Structure formats: structure tokens, C-alpha cells
């Protein structure tokens, strides 16, 4: 008889049920299957009511993030063989309200993402017209921020963050890292605008540098490093503005 594997999956319809439950499903065990394959098998063959997000199945879209045995993972990159023969528990990402089963409400992150203005800002009067062409950048200038531009908005870092778990007002790892990505871009002049959010009470100073955000990040963005860099540059700002008034930052 073909070998099987058990998944214990979080089920919850907030509008109908007072609390979540767990449902166990048995799926064929295949060495080349990831958790998302097993869930798709359940959805297609066993229980069509199971709800979750996924899209690219290749670690690019960032939509299939879930807790797998308590750890934030992209389920398209979590192989069953790494857990076999023990069963696994699949839950929605920590820290976000549940819409249904494994689908989390991402509105809070989307709001914060907009607040850090994740796009190039030019000072008034310093924008180039289309006729003047693009803003040029050297390979070294690109390398300076490229790591922080690899984020796929999967939110595993938020699910791993102990600060966000107790205080959802924290701007959080991915939004701050993305703000830093633009702050470090040689073409950008919008740092002062982003600082209002990034260096606010809910921003970088909330971070206690546990570093789990960088541990779970599937794209090696290293949001913890982005936050610490922002702390350093914000501290330099403070010294310039308060202790050396004639040395105010440009
Ligand atoms: S920083 Fe990493 S873990 Fe966080 S959202 Fe971006 S890719 Fe995902």
C-alpha cells in the first residue's frame, strides 16, 4: 500500500464559528511534494472547502506563507520529506486576523507599506522630464540597496516578530526594510518624508533586535539589518540636529 502522510490543518470561519478547530487529512506521501502540493491535493481530492492563498508555486509571489509546525514558511518551499514521518500542523501566519481557514487579513501591512512610500521621490524642481531620460545609477550604487529590494511581501518576518505579536502598531520588518531600500537608492530624495514613519515611536525604536525576521526570510532580505542601519542613521541625524545645530543633515 502507498505510504501516506498526515496534515493537521487549522479551520476557521469567523462569521459562523466561535473558535478555530483543527482537521486532520491523510494525503499520499511523495518525496518531491511540498506542503502546498499536499494542500492542493486535499483541496482537489478530499475537501474543496479548505481555503488558503497561493499563486506562483516557485517562491516569487509570496502568497503561500503559513505557519508550518509553528514556524513561518513559504509552503511552496517546505518539503514533506523534511518532516516525514511525523505529521505536520499548518496554521495561518501569526499576528494577523483570520479571514477564513489559512487566509489572513493583510490590510494592516498594506497600510504600513503605503506609509513608508516605497517608490522613488524627487525633490520639487529636481525631477527629470521624460525627454531628459532616466536617472542613471552605477552597479555599485545598485548593489548598495539591492538586497532590500528582494522582498516578496510574504510577511513571514511579521509572523516571526515578537514585537509585532504584542503590538501591531509596530511598522514592522518588511515595511521598514522597503523604506530603507528607497532611502539607500542614489536616485531617491525622499528620506525625510519616510523618516516621519520609520523613525517614529512605532518604527525602528520598537525593534528589540531579536532577529527572527531575518532568520525566517526566504529571500535573504535581512530586515533586521535594515532596521539597525536605520537606527544608526537616525541617531546620526539626532546628533547633527540637536548637538551640532550647524551640521544639520542635508
Ligand atoms: S522581508 Fe523577507 S520575510 Fe519579510 S516580507 Fe520580505 S521577503 Fe518576506
Residue share in β-strands: 5-15%
Q: What portion of residues is helical?
A: 25-40%
CATH superfamily grouping of the largest domain: Alpha-helical ferredoxin
CATH arch. level architecture of the largest domain: Orthogonal Bundle
> H/E series, N to C?
EEHEEEEEHHHHHHHH
What is the average per-residue confidence, as pLDDT, rounded to a whole number?
Answer: 95
User: How many DSSP helices?
Assistant: 9
Ligand inventory: iron/sulfur cluster
The Cα radius of gyration reads 21 Å
Q: Which overall shape is indicated by the principal axes computed on the Cα atoms?
A: elongated
> What name does the CATH topology of the largest domain carry?
Fumarate Reductase Iron-sulfur Protein, Chain B, domain 2
Query: How many strands appear in the DSSP assignment?
Result: 7
Termini, distance in Å? 71 Å
Sheet with most strands:
5 strands, mixed
Structural class: alpha+beta
Low-pLDDT ranges: none
CATH class of the largest domain: Mainly Alpha
Overall tally of structural domains: 2
Record the strand order, biggest sheet.
Answer: 2-1-5-3-4
Which descriptors would you attach to this protein?
single chain; 250 residues; alpha+beta; Ubiquitin-like (UB roll); Fumarate Reductase Iron-sulfur Protein, Chain B, domain 2; five-stranded mixed beta sheet; two-stranded antiparallel ribbon; 9 helices; binds iron/sulfur cluster
Structure description:
By secondary structure, this protein is α+β, with helices and mostly antiparallel strands. It has two domains: 4-104, Roll (Ubiquitin-like (UB roll)); 107-247, Orthogonal Bundle (Fumarate Reductase Iron-sulfur Protein, Chain B, domain 2), CATH 1.10.1060.10. It has nine helices and seven strands. The strands form two sheets. A five-stranded mixed beta sheet has the order 2-1-5-3-4. It has a two-stranded antiparallel ribbon with strand order 6-7. Strand 3 and strand 4 form a beta hairpin. 34% of the residues are buried. The structure holds iron/sulfur cluster (SF4).
Amino acid at each position: 500500500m502507498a505510504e501516506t502522510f498526515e496534515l493537521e490543518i487549522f479551520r476557521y470561519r469567523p462569521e459562523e464559528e466561535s473558535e478555530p478547530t483543527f482537521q486532520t487529512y491523510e494525503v499520499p506521501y511523495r518525496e518531491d511534494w511540498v506542503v502546498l502540493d499536499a494542500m492542493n491535493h486535499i483541496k482537489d481530492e478530499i475537501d474543496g472547502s479548505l481555503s488558503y492563498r497561493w499563486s506562483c508555486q516557485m517562491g516569487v509571489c509570496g502568497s503561500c506563507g503559513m505557519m508550518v509546525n509553528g514556524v513561518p514558511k513559504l509552503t511552496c518551499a517546505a518539503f514533506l520529506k523534511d518532516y516525514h514521518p511525523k505529521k505536520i500542523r499548518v496554521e495561518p501566519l501569526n499576528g494577523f486576523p483570520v479571514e477564513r481557514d489559512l487566509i489572513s487579513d493583510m490590510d494592516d501591512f498594506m497600510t504600513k507599506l503605503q506609509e513608508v512610500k516605497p517608490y522613488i521621490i524627487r525633490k520639487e524642481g529636481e525631477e527629470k522630464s521624460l525627454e531628459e531620460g532616466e536617472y542613471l545609477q552605477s552597479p555599485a550604487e545598485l548593489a548598495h540597496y539591492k538586497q532590500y529590494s528582494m522582498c516578496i511581501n510574504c510577511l513571514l518576518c511579521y509572523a516571526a516578530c515578537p514585537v509585532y505579536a504584542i503590538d501591531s502598531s509596530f511598522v514592522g520588518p518588511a515595511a521598514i526594510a522597503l523604506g530603507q531600500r528607497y532611502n539607500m537608492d542614489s536616485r531617491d530624495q525622499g528620506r525625510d518624508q519616510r523618516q516621519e514613519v520609520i523613525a517614529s515611536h512605532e518604527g525602528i525604536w520598537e525593534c528589540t533586535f531579536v532577529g527572527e525576521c531575518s532568520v525566517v526570510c526566504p529571500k535573504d532580505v535581512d530586515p533586521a539589518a535594515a532596521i539597525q542601519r536605520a537606527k544608526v542613521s537616525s541617531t546620526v541625524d539626532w546628533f547633527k540636529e540637536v548637538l551640532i545645530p550647524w551640521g544639520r543633515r542635508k
